[in-house]
From TrEMBL:
Gene Ontology MF, one: hydrolase activity
Entry annotated with the keyword Hydrolase: yes
Pfam family of the protein (one): Ser_hydrolase
Keyword Nucleotide-binding appears in the UniProt entry: no
Protein's recorded name: Alpha/beta hydrolase
Superkingdom of the organism of origin: Bacteria
Organism (species): Mucilaginibacter gynuensis
Top-level taxonomy: Bacteria, Pseudomonadati, Bacteroidota, Sphingobacteriia, Sphingobacteriales
Keyword terms: Hydrolase
Length: 178
């Protein structure tokens, strides 16, 4: 299956290992990964600039961002700063950088921007994500103007939650690719 759009994989804190659905999708569909300089102690300004550089290498109207965890917040900050209309964004398991459960070591990712994104987006969340409670995920989706997809008890929608290829996610991505 080929995608019409340019798909940019945007991993979160720690990057996405080889068994993570983002890495599997990247390899299987030849998507492009946005490579951050510092995966462990990220600085918002750096991540936002790196994302902007990656998007600017393509026709923005053809770009779909696929963010996981901290990347969702990065994408919101990027949209707030640059206001570029891309084709869309699949925002999976947005983490709450303001929560007590959020890991230390990041700089500048709080508060989470509660702005309407200038592009179509889908937020995918679960009811038992350690890094965001369901109410906050709903708040983010509502503020961002995103469609909210609740996939039930699915943890942080990553390898430790049992997500490898994740076909349901591909189906959501296809909806943005139309």
């Amino acid at each position: 299956m080929a995608f019409k759009s340019t798909i940019l994989i945007v991993p979160g804190l720690g990057n996405s290992g080889p068994q993570h659905w983002q890495s599997i999708w990247q390899q299987q569909y030849n998507f492009t990964r946005v490579e951050q300089q510092d995966w462990e102690t990220p600085v918002r300004a750096d991540w936002v600039e790196t994302l902007n550089n990656a998007v600017s290498q393509h026709n923005p109207q053809d770009v779909i961002l696929v963010g996981h965890s901290l990347a969702c917040t990065t994408i919101a900050y990027w949209a707030q700063k640059f206001n570029i209309k891309i084709k869309g964004a699949l925002l999976v398991a947005p983490s709450d950088t303001e929560a007590d459960t959020y890991p230390s070591g990041t700089t500048g990712f709080s508060p989470v921007p509660l702005i309407k994104l200038p592009f179509k987006s889908i937020v995918v969340t679960s009811t038992d994500d350690y890094y965001v409670n369901f109410e906050r995920a709903m708040l983010f989706a509502d503020a961002w103007g995103s469609e909210l997809v609740n996939i039930g008890e699915a943890g942080h929608i990553n390898v430790s939650s049992g997500f490898g290829h994740w076909q349901e996610g591909i189906e959501l991505l296809k909806r943005l690719d139309q």
